[in-house]
Amino acid sequence: MSAQAPSAVLLVRATKFLPNPSTAADNAFQADAPAGESPEELSARALAEMDLVADTLRSVGVRVHVFDDEDHTRPDSVFPNNWISTHAGGMVGVFPMYASNRRHERRSDVLELLKSHFRVQTIVDYSGLEPDGIFLEGTGAMVLDHVSRVAYTAVSHRADTHVLERFCTDFNYEPMAFEAVDSGGVPVYHTNVMACVGTDVALIALDMIPDAHRREQVRERLTVNGRTVVELTEEQVREFAGNAVELCGRHADGRRRYVMAMSARAHRSLRPDQVATIEQSCEIVSVDIPTIELAGGSVRCMIAGVHLDRRPVDLDPDLTEAVRAINEDHPVTLDGRLVDAEG
Hints:
L-arginine/glycine Amidinotransferase, Chain A, three-stranded mixed beta sheet, 27% helix
């Protein structure tokens, strides 16, 4: 199994959704909600899209853990990848967030599920840096190559290089930091909107790296072990083509199935030759999420991959029969969280 493509993911089902006013200033991908639409209507549409993402991932054999969030003060909680990351060897990172109204997205129940369902050895929490105005927003700020142990990072006030160095020391990654801007000179707010690293293919807008020497260093590092680079245009990045993630699912007969999850909007922006290159190593699975994309993030932002070894879980005996009775493709609620039928 590829170390790059996790077979389990965390999603947050946010019942109250709104493009976050506190992030609009530096997130060039964010858009206003449609005029005349009530908050309830907006949230209902977004919730349906969240459920569609979860159902689509389950349909290709990815294990999905979903957490409900009914807190109306967490408009971006649908994007958990910004505050948590998981790593082989039982390591978990918890990260400092730029927007103050995002900091209470960090949830102890998520960490408890990880500890109960997976082998967690160490949790490294950098959130104490927030009062100092120092931030590193998880796998939004960093696009991680888990195989070659490289952390590709577009430098911004959401991705401080000092914290990046600390993370790389603690988690054994090589920092690969670079400046990245759009055609108007606006810095890219999160690396994962312009780049995605898979096992055998990477999607990246290299032309958004203005320093030609650094651009070639990034290209060389991505390809050194034979990985193919699909170069994205800035226009495709604006359609969220870079905001994709490779996952490991299962066919009905149990065979492994590698997929590249992205939005339908992102998929439509790709040229036929780019699609063909991606599908040489994994199949594209796309979901239409136009409401959630108003918040400036897409499918990859919604997914926190679980790169941890599973552990056997002893369920409450009173719940055992209920769990056995459900279909494997449908979750059951246990103590306020959704758990797949395998436990």
